[in-house]
Amino acid sequence: MERWSRVVRTPLGLTATILMVVVLALAAFGPLLWGDAAEAVDTENILAAPSAEHWAGTDNLGRDILLRVLVAGRLSVLLALLAITITVVVGLILGTAPFLLGRRPGRLVSAAVNIAVAFPGLLLALSFAVVFGVGATGAVLAIGLAGAPAFARLIQTLVAGVAARDYIAAARTAGIGRFRILIRHVLPNIAEPLVVNSTIGAGTALLAFSGLSFLGIGVQSPAYDWGRLLFDGIGAIYTNATAALVPGAAVLLAGLAFNLFGESVAKALGITTGTGVRALLSSRRKPVEGPEFAESGTRSSDVVLDVRDLEVTLPGVNGPIRPVRGVSFEVRRGEAVGIVGESGSGKSLTALAVTRLVAEHGRVDASRLELLGKDLLVPDTAVQRKLLGTSMAMVFQDPTTAFNPTRRIGGQLAEVATEHHGMNRGEALERAVDRLSAVRITDAERRARQYPHEFSGGMRQRAMIGMGVMGSPALIVADEPTTALDVTVQGQVLDLLTAIRKTDDVALVLISHDVAVVGEVCDRVLVMYAGRIVEDLPATDLTTVAKHPYTRALIEAVPDMDTDLDKPLATIPGRPVTPADAPVGCAFAARCPLADDRCKTEDPPLVAGSGPDDRHRIACWHAGDPLPSALDTDELVETP
Question: What does the domain layout of the chain look like in residue ranges?
Answer without folding.
Answer: 2-276, 530-640
